[in-house]
Amino acid sequence: MGVLFASAVLALAPSVSADERHDEGAELFASLCSDCHAGRSAEAGYDVVALLEQRPIAASLFDVRRGRAMVATGAMPPDFELTAEERAGLAAYFEHVEREAHEQGGGAGVEPVRRLTRTELRGTLRELLGVDLELDALLPAELVADDGFEASSATLFVHAQWIDRASAAVRIAVDRAALDPTTFDLPAFLRRAFRRPPTADELERYRADLVDADTATLRATVAAICMSPNVLLRVEDATNDTAPDADGERPVGQFGLASRLSFLLWAAPPDDELLDLAAAGRLSDGRVLEAQARRLIEDPRGLEFARVFAGQWFGTHHLGTRVKPDPIDNPFMTDSLMAAMREEVARFVHHLFRDERPLDDLLTSRATFVDRELAQHYRIDTDALPSEGFARVELIDSRRRGVLGKAGVLMVTSHPDRTSPVVRGAWILDELLGTPPPPPPPGASEFDDALFEDGEFEGTRGMLELHRQPTSCASCHATIDPLGFALEGFDRFGRTRAHDDEGFAVDTSGVLPGGIEFRGPTGLSRALVEHRRGDLAREASRRLLSYALARPLTWRDERTVTELAATLEADGFGALLRGVLASRPFLRVEVQ
Amino acid sequence: MSRRLPVSRRSFLKGAGAVLALPHLEALVPRGCDAAPPVRAAWLYIPNGVATGSWWPTGVDAGGAIARLNPRLAAFERFTDRLLFPRNVWTPRGNGHGAGTATWLTSGGWNDREVDAGGASVDQIAARELGDDCVVPALSLSARGEGFFAADVPRNSLSWAGTGRPVFRETDPRSVFRLLFGGGVEADRSLLDDLRTQAETLKRRVSESDAERLEAYLDAIRDLERRIAFVQDERTRARLESAREHGLPFDADAPLDAVPEEHGAYLDLMLDLAALALWSGASRVASVMLDHGQSNRYCTFVRDVNGVDEVAGTWHALSHWRDASGRSEDDDGVTSWSSVDSKRAMYDAVVEWHNQRAARFLERLDALPEVDGTLLDHALVMYGSSISDGHDHGELDLPVLLAGGAGGALRGGRVLDSGGRIDLASVHLAALRAMGSGAESFGEVDTPLALT
């Protein structure tokens, strides 16, 4: 409806209408690209004709951005040069789509029913039964899609095997729980389990089972409750009967909000205080919700948010599993050291949110969190550290500041036996700036051996500079590699070093697009904070919003992301979290 | 012998007071009755493609009859007359390691954001129409993933129940056995009744799209109920007890106790389970990923194949065989190769080793007796990859082969080359028809590939 309205108004304007502008740009886009990018056999599956047929026009936003990136890097078109006029025309079209998305977006979006993740099931059993059961061996690892988070309705599928194994986990946990029929409070337990008050029918059904029950009967009943779809699926808002408004949206119910908040900040169900506030109808009060968010993030369980969110955002949750150096060749790389690296990243991100740090701190903060083993790895003085556990330290070595100095990040962006400036550069572009480099064109891995045999080069850097010589590679790698070179002073375990894997002195100087020069991680971090602030803020906002909503974002969310990014830039991570909690997609839901 | 449409086993079973599948043993079907066993199908997938020249038969006469198989497929030799090689097939709406894997059995378009492979896969469609009396109508198996992409959806998802619903793949033989024959169910029947009632209550309260998601939950509960019934059926037990006699290493009373350390033994065991599932009537179809779509596995278990003592580097790195520098981003930084030829030989060896697994699977099917022949006579197996030459991620002329008698619906010993490109969907449609499906189209295709 918004589209019709907008074009109807513009059609009355005497100047060029939005539709005409769209048609002109679309025609240019199609004429330049559709020779290769049209129809069923479109190159790279990128079908410009289908893209241009999408309505509303804004729905093509993400595809348009993909094309825009290819044009911007010069990777497309591959065999002719755009004239200045064509370039300007394309840019205007891309801008037009961005504007359309911004004008028409901003809705609440849907909240599809999904099951709990393995982590959330563990948190649920811990909260309900007081049993902390390691589930990695009992349940299959979660698959992830584009949005990168395990807690995503796009990938949390329900299968018989999953229910079967979740049920097995429930039985083990219930058998270990301390349950006593004389003190068991059924209504309270059901409320915590279902994350909403039970209906009279539900209460009655389980109550009947528990008349004169012995411990074995109680265990069976508790197990049956924990296997309920009301526990394993996120359906607490299904009992919300509020009619949708004219936009097809309604507010998320009180108990829905309680769960959204606790699964966001604890990866676990709400506690009694949250449920009491929900029962009293007070969680929709923004101040109450904010105060609860503060309580949850300050609670020890608040670290769980950062462990899951930061671990999956930065990829450091793979440390120790998918990224695991050979223990025989690298005896110092113990499981506990890798766990400490994961924990450092989690505590650092937790600190950014809890202590309401500014955006810059993501890259420039001197604060970090280490235990003795990690401190030794960093060659930090361990005298002031407790013998067990983590302590906050102020970093003296400026190279270690911010997320780019974290060993966990440096390790997951390395190859098993060497560092990779390409992987590290691509990681920065993708995870931090939200501008992932396009995939290499077919045949890109084909190095010209003659280059290596006849050419002269020094060290990893020289080798990569040589391999960038073919023009098809140069356009993208000129953007990717310099970012990674800045981190060459860290080896594949994240230790500082003076010589690269080939034995040559590291050269950490680089240039950002636009000619901004920098040297080393400190210089790179400063350059990013100064010159790519907007991208940093957008990407952090996008990740948090997607994680909080447990769904991939769509073009309609871009407007919310823009607003959140402005908040983060101005007021930091605390404000970003509050902004998410006050956002339309968090508080409201589109009813389909 | 005349062949009429098989009597509906389901109605027969209802008459006999049974509710579940009967195995197709001579003992269970009166002699002289020509109730032919149904055609069962299996899809075996390998990732990373096959080097140009290492798949298609090297001797083919003018009429398409195979005179000589490709040496890399020597393991299939005794089945030459049961093999059909269709040329120029492709998946027009998705290819490569990710999209190609996800759409191999759907031939649909891959959409990352929607986690959509363009609809349901052929195995699921077959199971839905024809698998009513099976306990796990479509069995979905995979080797455990290793390395990067082990958690990536498209590279790990061959079978799709529908949009956004990749099918769960079992990777542990013990779980498969338990799934098929162990009851394998934590929840008991009355509890399942209770869970179903709760989900149905929820389903009435939620939106249409969420109701679909709850339907997935209800499907899962129904699956669990079927498994309980199947394992309680005494005929299941009878079939299991005779499995060992026919070369399948299973014992009703001794469930598998460990995942084999050796990769070949592990894959063979998974394939044996697929054979057992089809033979016992537990499953109507099976899909097996012999590895995920961009396997980075170090295939150190491949020894003395294709004249190669042992292989170096990951499978995926080997597939980019024209670059032997060891310096590309596909490489691990440790491995390099002495020459392109030696790297190519290793790539071929890894594929050949997997060909041996697939050929052994055909041997298994051929050793399992049924009315009027063996399971292989009543089976249709598709084996191959979603990439042609791995080096350049070729998307045309995908290396696939069809094997088995398909109950008379497949005439083997031939290469089928019509000249034009063939949407893999037409092969899937042909498989459905061979199984007795009434499907008129598959995806956008309404003409099945002619298999006879």
> Mean pLDDT across all residues of chain B, rounded?
86
The total strand number of chain B stands at 17
Total strand segments of chain A: 8
* Element pattern of chain B in H and E: HEEEEEHHEEEHHHHHEEEHHEEEEEEH
Mind describing the biggest β-sheet of chain B?
7 strands, mixed
Strand content of chain A: under 5%
Largest sheet of chain A: 2 strands, antiparallel
Strand content of chain B: 5-15%
Main structural class of chain A: mainly alpha
Radius of gyration of chain B: 22 Å
Ends of chain B: how far apart? 17 Å
Secondary structural class of chain B? alpha/beta
Summarize the helices and strands and which ones pair or pack:
The complex is a heterodimer of chains A (592) and B (452).
Chain A: H1 2-12, H2 18-33, H3 48-53, H4 61-73, H5 84-104, H6 118-129, H7 160-176, H8 186-194, H9 200-210, H10 215-226, H11 229-232, E1 249-251, H12 254-265, H13 272-279, H14 286-298, H15 303-314, H16 335-354, H17 361-364, E2 367-370, H18 372-378, E3 391-394, H19 407-412, E4 414-415, E5 418-419, H20 421-432, H21 449-454, H22 459-467, H23 471-485, E6 509-512, E7 516-519, H24 520-531, H25 533-549, H26 558-581, H27 584-587, E8 588-590
Antiparallel strand pairs in A: 1-8, 2-3, 4-5, 6-7
Chain B: H1 9-15, E1 40-46, E2 59-60, E3 66-68, E4 83-86, E5 89-90, H2 99-102, H3 122-130, E6 138-142, E7 160-162, E8 165-166, H4 173-181, H5 189-205, H6 208-232, H7 234-243, H8 263-280, E9 285-289, E10 303-305, E11 308-310, H9 315-319, H10 340-367, E12 369-370, E13 373-374, E14 379-385, E15 400-403, E16 414-416, E17 422-423, H11 424-434
Parallel strand pairs in B: 1-9, 1-14, 4-16, 5-17, 6-9
Antiparallel strand pairs in B: 2-3, 4-15, 7-8, 10-11, 12-13, 14-15
